[in-house]
Design a protein that fits this description.
The chain has two domains: 192 residues, Clc chloride channel, CATH 1.10.3080; 197 residues, Clc chloride channel, CATH 1.10.3080. Helices cover 73% and strands 0% of the residues. α10 packs antiparallel against α15 and α13 packs across α15. With 438 residues, the chain is an all-alpha fold.
Length: 438
């Protein structure tokens, strides 16, 4: 028996070590890039929303023209310039992880799609759409990771997961929620060989955000609590309300994405730009009814409610629901997280009129978790992300219970998880054979 030379063993060990450190470097560099992209998208979103409100200051009725025209232009871009950039972006990442490496996967998470996503989301907020930037950050983060690790075939699924999770973490400054979202929604499991690398990417993204914009809580710190006793009676009511309307929202969006039956579905499929403009008009009308409070992400309104301020518009919650629904079925790129939190806070403010002995801040947190859970059906992510956003640990148990109830109610209304259902739309489209030219 011939012994293997020690030099061969040394070279093998050195090669393996270099390979491991190479992978770690890829994930860390990707995390830094995702963090920077999240900050860029946040800045662009702020500028866009500010400029739209400057337009409304001239005349609030300008939205009746600007919003429909903007929706039509954005859908034109998603169809002809940046295909696969529509919607939140999370379904595209889920679908890409299910696909084998090749043109179909690249088409969902390319740098071209990422650039289109940033442009389209900014334009959407510039014309008053009720959308968020956090879901799009997931697709942008996955695209950046995929681009830098294009040749790492064995780790592409892990790279996509890491980029997406880092996107959520950097967008909200919620690293724990990024990890939980990666496990609960994006992968439904955690791959042991990439778990440390995913964590490293999230840390890198978080450090980038921390270094550029400093440490902060997304909605500011709150010490709201739910007093024991009668105040707890509102918890199941709030959870059922949030779960029902969240599930209803998802069911409608999924129905439109799959295609409505009959003549209505045929008309929408044949005239997507005209339908988008009609949805934009719906958003503008919702804005007029709500005293211009439903446009954009809803961050300012949700933050105010969390800190105990009653909305100036008594029907802010329902109107934000309709504006976000119109924005989603219209086919423009945009996320659901921030608008869903705003809807939940608004619905909680409506409940507060009947339960005035319950602190509005505590009720708002319950409403945010309940409605977000109802929409995305990820109860753990929902209560973790809200508690991290507000640095509130006293409400953990009530938030967990609200998420559990809301999730059950939502699944009764809508059997499919919205992101996975929409991901199957992309998978089914990719599976269809391309018709051969005659």
């Amino acid at each position: 028996m011939i012994a293997r030379p020690q030099s061969t063993n040394f070279r093998s060990l050195t090669h393996n070590a270099l390979e491991r450190w190479g992978r770690r470097t890829l994930f860390l560099i990707g995390g830094l890039l995702v963090g920077a992209a999240a900050i860029l998208m946040a800045a662009l979103a702020d500028y866009a929303q500010r400029d739209f409100h400057h337009v409304l200051a001239v005349s609030r009725y300008l939205s009746l023209a600007l919003t429909p025209l903007g929706f039509g232009a954005i859908v034109f871009l998603t169809l002809h310039v940046f295909p696969n950039s529509q919607g939140s972006g999370i379904p595209q990442v889920i679908a890409a992880r299910e696909m084998p490496d090749g043109p179909t996967r690249t088409a969902l998470v390319s740098l071209r799609v990422a650039a289109g996503k940033i442009i389209a989301v900014t334009l959407g907020l510039l014309c008053g759409a009720s959308i968020g930037r956090e879901g799009p950050t997931v697709q942008v983060g996955a695209a950046l990771m995929y681009a830098i690790g294009r040749r790492a075939l064995d780790y592409q699924r892990g790279l996509l997961l890491a980029g997406a999770a880092a996107g959520i973490a950097a967008a909200f400054n919620t690293p724990l929620a990024g990890i939980v979202f990666g496990i609960e929604e994006l992968s439904r499991s955690f791959e042991s060989r990439t778990s440390g690398l995913v964590l490293g990417a999230i840390i890198a993204a978080g450090l980038t955000s921390l270094g550029l914009v400093g440490d902060y809580a997304y909605f500011g710190s709150t010490n709201a609590v739910l007093p024991l006793g009668r105040a707890w009676l509102v918890l199941p009511l709030c959870a059922v309300l949030g779960g029902f309307f969240g599930g209803l929202f998802s069911r409608i969006v999924i129905g439109f994405a799959r295609g409505l039956p009959g003549k209505a579905g045929q008309i929408i499929a044949k005239h997507p730009i005209a339908f988008a403009m009609l949805c934009g008009l719906g958003v503008a009308l919702s804005g007029l009814v709500s005293q211009d409070s439903i446009y954009g992400t809803g961050y300012d309104q949700a933050r105010a409610i969390v800190h105990g301020a009653v909305p100036s518009c008594a029907i802010f919650g329902p109107m934000k629901f309709f504006a976000t629904l119109f924005s989603s079925i219209g086919g423009i790129p945009g996320g659901l997280f921030a608008p869903s939190l705003a809807v939940g806070a608004g619905l909680a403010a409506n409940l507060h009129a009947a339960f005035q002995d319950v602190p509005l801040g505590a009720l708002a947190l319950l409403g945010m978790v309940s409605y977000l859970t109802g929409v995305v059906q990820t109860p753990i992510t929902s209560f973790v992300i809200v508690s991290e956003m507000t640095e509130n640990h006293a409400m953990i148990i009530p938030l967990m219970l609200a998420a559990l109830i809301a999730d059950a109610v939502s699944k009764w209304v809508c059997h499919d998880s919205i992101y996975h259902a929409l991901a199957h739309v992309f998978l089914d489209k990719a599976a269809k054979p391309t018709p051969s030219p005659e």
